[in-house]
Known about the structure:
Layout: E1 3-4, E2 12-13, E3 22-23, E4 29-33, E5 35-36, E6 46-50, E7 56-61, E8 71-72, E9 78-82, E10 85-89, E11 95-100, E12 102-103, E13 106-107, E14 115-116, E15 122-125, E16 134-138, E17 146-150, E18 157-159, E19 163-164, E20 170-176, E21 184-188, E22 194-199, E23 220-221, E24 227-231, E25 247-251, E26 257-262, E27 278-279, E28 285-289, E29 300-304, E30 310-315, E31 331-332, E32 338-341, E33 354-358, E34 367-369, E35 372-373, E36 378-382, E37 391-394, E38 397-399, E39 402-403, E40 410-414, E41 424-428, E42 431-434, E43 440-441, E44 444-449, E45 452-453, E46 458-464, E47 471-474, E48 477-478, E49 482-486, E50 489-493, E51 501-507, E52 510-520
Parallel strand pairs: 35-43, 45-52
Antiparallel strand pairs: 1-33, 2-5, 3-4, 4-6, 6-7, 8-9, 9-10, 10-11, 12-13, 14-15, 15-16, 16-17, 18-20, 19-20, 20-21, 21-22, 23-24, 24-25, 25-26, 27-28, 28-29, 29-30, 31-32, 32-33, 34-36, 36-40, 37-38, 37-41, 39-40, 41-42, 44-46, 46-50, 47-48, 47-51, 49-50, 51-52
Amino acid sequence: xxxxxxxxxxxxxxxxxxxxxxxxxxxxxxxxxxxxxxxxxxxxxxxxxxxxxxxxxxxxxxxxxxxxxxxxxxxxxxxxxxxxxxxxxxxxxxxxxxxxxxxxxxxxxxxxxxxxxxxxxxxxxxxxxxxxxxxxxxxxxxxxxxxxxxxxxxxxxxxxxxxxxxxxxxxxxxxxxxxxxxxxxxxxxxxxxxxxxxxxxxxxxxxxxxxxxxxxxxxxxxxxxxxxxxxxxxxxxxxxxxxxxxxxxxxxxxxxxxxxxxxxxxxxxxxxxxxxxxxxxxxxxxxxxxxxxxxxxxxxxxxxxxxxxxxxxxxxxxxxxxxxxxxxxxxxxxxxxxxxxxxxxxxxxxxxxxxxxxxxxxxxxxxxxxxxxxxxxxxxxxxxxxxxxxxxxxxxxxxxxxxxxxxxxxxxxxxxxxxxxxxxxxxxxxxxxxxxxxxxxxxxxxxxxxxxxxxxxxxxxxxxxxxxxxxxxxxxxxxxxxxxxxxxxxxxxxxxxxxxxxxxxxxxxxxxxxxxxxxxx
Length: 521
């Protein structure tokens, strides 16, 4: 336990979902609470900062509640949501209300902070728990958002925070909705194309919801390219005479669904997971349950592999002294430690929850923002121990970084020529720090010659970051043969059945499409 909420007058109180915790450029952690701070009763809520060692500061006394938590953007500011609107807040607590989220009936509630996608735009959703929730988009300049998709009852409502996959699409869960009223999983492209991936089904047998019921938390895009999450109820575990005690599940981007673990009342490993998961640097997923049994306890912390091997890590004491009922997703700091909070418990007055850390003996790492980009793009690095002599390597391609933090926790570097998709390493006086996720170098096509030809003709494609080419297409038809000549040139043969159209090259970092058209003679 690092801090007892309620220990001091004006403290944050009762951190509630989504409550996303974000690491800032200074190495500290930031989030919001719906209560505490100034105001009558339990207050109107706060934006708070807490150091990795547990020193807490309220940096903004909110005028209206926000339980969204915060996400860090490339401008160094944090973005959150509350009371029907979107706001931006600096590390010093200067808050700017950007715009409300409006519906024909007035303001809409949202408990989800917007996320900044790799196209630099922001995406978010409302969570008013009735048909009509929507996904929105706005630009970094803060212009009025546009609605990308409005949910029907069958598609879901009570929508949880979005996550972006390495495929560029956005994924999320809806707590309610669907044919069984048990929740849904969905995908939406940045342009607004919506796909309902999965509806949690209701069974007619003794197990009411074998695949889960009420996915309360956001999804996690894991290193294997799949999505992982939890549902508070359901599963095959012995609990609640049928409704179940919750599950951990996996779902592929195409919608193939698997239950990895069903919680049960009888093993002491916890029940009723009410939030999402975090993939740590050991490759495992870490999460929490909100109780030990369906009628007892303050919850647990657990670890589960991507293949479903489950381990109990820690049980919160039932006397609530170290906090009770964690409802906010865990976060791994670049120092390797895992942090989280609880909605109640602790020794504060009132007992408004605690902020805690978990030492799972995980290595230090660096976090990148964003995790993809073209050669020449500036990438931000969060970590520790950075100095003026630190170096950066994108899969062996070295570049000189710029140190931007006196605390040694923040630097930037541009993606160098020759960079390939893979892990990025920052070398400091203390050793090498590897990124916790793969960085994807986006390919580029600058030209091709000739611009027309017969089937079987050889075409030279020039560009940037082409070394990892896995596929070439002409007008959408895959070339039967191609040769990677260098990182800047690929030679391909015009395939049979092709039509006049663009040339596209796919690498491990994505797909580049030519601006010009290849004409088939």
